[in-house]
Write a structure and sequence with these properties.
Protein Transport Mog1p, Chain A; two-stranded antiparallel ribbon; 25% helix; 34% strand
């Protein structure tokens, strides 16, 4: 009798309502309004960067004093900025290194798209977007071919898949494009 009552109770409870699975959910990402501030005057380059990013010295600050990281603490993202003065024909080496660093991600990237952007200053920048589970989602470089070479790459300090980070990646890509359009060299 106990067994019959238990089966009857389970059957009665189980048939009481229709079950609807919950839709897959994602964390809500609240992104701040884009606001920009000027880079300090102590660099041979100038641009405006997001006020939500903090300038940190790069780990190689001793040997490369103009290398910086724009760190987005709330987003766990960093734009690594490297700068090299150009001398004679060394520009080819810098460009080659930049393309090699990008192509190293072709193993995990399912798309690598490079755009050449004409900047308001008359310079041309290479802006590369990488898609897939790659450690960097955007890279860029720009040079005047005679005196200055600047390279940057976006990295995240998280194991989160890039599809979940897509809104943040798009947000920071816009910051990078703004950085490039405001870039000027200082002599």
């Amino acid at each position: 009798m106990k067994y019959f009552t238990l089966v009857f109770a389970l059957f009665f409870v189980a048939c009481g309502s229709d079950y609807l699975p919950k839709p897959r959910g994602y964390n809500r990402i609240n992104l701040p309004e884009s606001e920009y501030i000027s880079l300090p005057d102590s660099f041979p380059y100038h641009f405006k960067y997001s006020k939500h990013a903090k300038i940190l010295k790069d780990s190689s600050w001793i040997s490369e004093k103009y290398w910086i990281n724009l760190f987005y603490a709330e987003m766990g993202a960093t734009i690594q900025i490297t700068y090299k003065p150009v001398t004679d024909s060394i520009i080819r080496e810098y460009l080659s290194d930049s393309y090699k660093l990008t192509s190293q991600h072709s193993v995990k990237a399912y798309a690598i798209e490079e755009s050449i952007i004409e900047l308001p200053s008359g310079l041309f920048a290479s802006f590369t977007e990488l898609e897939g589970d790659v450690p960097t989602q955007a890279q860029f470089h720009v040079s005047d071919s005679t005196d200055h070479f600047l390279r940057g790459a976006l990295y995240f300090r998280t194991a989160t898949k890039n599809d979940s980070l897509a809104p943040i990646i798009d947000y920071i890509k816009q910051d990078i494009l703004y950085l490039l359009t405001t870039l000027e060299w200082r002599d």
